[in-house]
Each structure stands twice: as C-alpha cells, then as structure tokens.
Design goal:
Layout (H helix, E strand, L loop, with lengths): L3 H6 L2 H11 L5 H6 L5 E8 L3 E2 L3 H11 L4 E4 L6 E2 L4 E8 H30 L7 E3 L9 H10 L13 E3 L1 H7 L2 H11 L6 E5 L2 H10 L3 E5 L3 H11 L4 E5 L17 E3 L2 H4 L6 E8 L1
Parallel strand pairs: 6-11, 7-8, 8-9, 9-10, 10-11
Antiparallel strand pairs: 1-5, 1-12, 2-4, 3-5
Length: 284
C-alpha cells in the first residue's frame, strides 16, 4: 500500500531524514538482542477511537529500511477505527521492525491525530456550505504529511507554501503602507491567474479591500458584530474567509454567517496524536 501523496510528492527524503535522526550509527538495543536476520510478525493495534491516516507512510518507513518488508492492512486511510482494533500486520526481518517502529508510529500517530481532529471540526460545519481550511502553521519539514491528513479528515488545504498564492497579511500591509497599496502592488506583480487575498482586522480595512478589488477578504479575529457588519458591506463583491483562533470549541459561532471559508491553524498545530501501537512481535 502506497498512497497517492507519497507517490506524487516524493516523501522519501523526509522519512529517511527522520530515520537518520533515530539511527545515527546503529540500533544498539536491537543489535544487542538479535545479531542475525530473523523473520517475524507484529500487530498494528489501535488504542483509541479515531480516523486512521498515514498508512502508506507507515509502510514506506519499513520499506526504506528493507524493501522486502510486507505490511498487510485491514483498513484504509480515512476509515473510522475503534480502540483495540487490529489495523495491520507487519511481516519482515525482526531487526527492521524494531528499528523502524518508532519512526513509523510517529508519522501514523501524528497524521491520524490531525485527521481525527479535522473530522471532528468538519462535522460541526456540515450543512453550512462553509469550507474548512488549514494554514501554514505546520511542523517544519512535515507539512506534506500534515496537510494530507487534513484532507483525509474532511478538511481542505489553503495554500501549500509561499509560492502557492498571494495572501497579504498585516505585516505585508505595513510594508506596503496601506491595504490599497498592498493590493495594487500585488496586482501589478503577481500573475493574473492568481487570486489576491487580504487579511483585515477593522471595518475601515474591509472597505479599503473591497474598493481596491481584493478577490478574497479574510476577516481576522473579529467579534460577531464586526463580522456581521463586514459581511453585509462586502455583499458578494469578494469571497470571504473567517480566521483567528478557530477551534473545535468555538467554531459553532460562525456557522450562520454564510461565508465561503473558515481557516483554523488548530487543525495542525493543536491536534493531539491518536494512540496506535505495534504489539505482539514474534518469530515466524
């Protein structure tokens, strides 16, 4: 099993870097108890309810250590899994299973945690037509994994990186001198096929953004009263995104505003891991 994000975006260098972090010269513990190849099998077991994600990365971690390692999956990315459920069996050289276990589980736990949390948040927006977006608030060198997990959990990806789109935030506006000037400069520089999004914090900035022709207006950290005023003024002249400390606990407050998007950094920076474990390793 080798999922499309792994195939399409070449995550091997990231996984290899993580393996090198964990094995700088040798796995002393494993080599102490097993000096020769020995085929074995271990069970991948879920230890809490959630949405599983990252199975292809889990498998690839072992295969980078030994291409003959086999993982027999009983579930697929996006499946809802239960505490105590058997998810897969890992078959191969016991030394490889032991050496790759922690790195493989770290990816799987992190990605499953993000998918689970995103799924919980996305369900709170069902029926609203509002798209749930992630942000660039990701773990360095793990964005490819974390943004994939958001999609598996039912969310959508905002821009992947700084080369992916124009988003003028407070400091860009400060550098340019005003909302109007920032949008003018972006229109003159950016390719015409790119939409221009601008982050605003006050009603005066909203009016400026509309007049300057922003394609998307991000209403950041506004009260409900400020949101109502801004949305009424925009009146369909730009797409609208709401942002600013949006979490599972408070997202319900924006359900009735009829905007296009809501973005939440919490999807990636605050999702707890989902506990999974590799157990019952034995010789075969």
């Amino acid at each position: 099993m080798y999922d499309q994000v792994t195939l399409g975006l070449n995550v091997d260098p990231y996984i290899l870097s993580a393996l090198r972090e964990d094995i700088t010269s040798e796995d002393v513990s494993t080599n102490s108890v097993m000096s020769h190849p020995q085929k074995g099998e271990a069970d991948l077991i879920c230890k809490q309810d959630g949405v599983i994600c990252g199975l292809g990365v889990f498998e690839r971690t072992f295969k980078l250590l030994d291409a003959t390692t086999e993982v027999k999956f009983l579930v697929a990315d996006g499946d809802e899994v239960k505490k105590g459920q058997l998810l897969a069996k890992v078959i191969g050289d016991i030394r490889v299973i032991l050496s790759g276990e922690r790195t493989a589980l770290n990816y799987l736990q992190r990605m499953s945690g993000i998918a689970t949390y995103t799924n919980q948040v996305s369900k709170l927006l069902e029926g609203t037509g509002i798209k749930l977006l992630d942000t660039r608030k990701t773990t360095p060198n793990n964005r490819i994994f974390e943004k994939y997990a958001v999609r598996i959990g039912g969310g959508n990806n905002h821009r992947y990186n700084l080369s992916d789109g124009v988003l003028l935030k407070d400091n860009h506006i400060g550098a340019a001198g005003s909302v109007t000037k920032a949008i003018e400069l972006a229109k003159a520089y950016a390719p015409f096929v790119r939409k221009i999004e601008v982050e605003v914090e006050t009603f005066e900035m909203v009016k400026e953004a509309v007049k300057a022709g922003a394609d998307i207006i991000m209403l950041d950290n506004m009260t409900n009263e400020q949101l109502e005023e801004a949305i009424e003024y925009i009146d369909g002249r730009a797409e609208i995104e709401i942002s600013g400390n949006i979490t599972k606990e408070n997202i319900a407050r924006i359900k009735g505003f009829g905007v296009n998007y809501v973005s939440s950094g919490a999807l990636t920076h605050s999702a707890p891991i989902m506990d999974v474990s590799l157990k019952n390793l034995h010789k075969i």
